[in-house]
Amino acid sequence: MRRGPGLAGLMKGREQQSALSAVGEQMEADKTQQATALLQSLQTALQSFAAKHRSRINSDPKFRQSFCEMCMAVGVDPLSSSKGLWDELLGVGQFYNDLSVQVLTLCLRTRDENGGLLDLGQCLAQLRKGATREVSQEDVERAVECLAQLGPGVSIRICGRRPLICSTVEARSRDFSKPFET
Question: Could you tell me which SUPFAM superfamilies the record lists for this protein (predicted)?
Fold first, then answer.
């Protein structure tokens, strides 16, 4: 009959386990340090790109859309905060905040005429009349997405092939203990 490991064998097993744990922690620390360095270099590269192309990002809606898509692809949201890095560099967050206020104002002003369903093309035409920057349909869609963070009430819905900005209050079910119906 074979006996189990003795005291020396148990001690050696514990030493090996703690050595493996130390190596694992060191590897994890190295990976974290490498990821942090990579993120910092990416942030620096995006900052320099944004600073270099600031005027084009602010004036050209297609370039602005491409810049936002590039940022989102690497996990950076340029619209995440109006007081963040991108707003300091570009004013992009503030642009969309201002645009979302204009869209909401237009929706509320025309609600009696259209029942809260404003055609996106009509909205865009109205916004372009008084705009200092060129505004695209994608800009309006992003502005409406910013409003969606405030809760249900303003969204884009497709009716046929026409995109409409819906600014109506969601219907409640007959059971008032249930949430809004969508």
Answer: Winged helix' DNA-binding domain
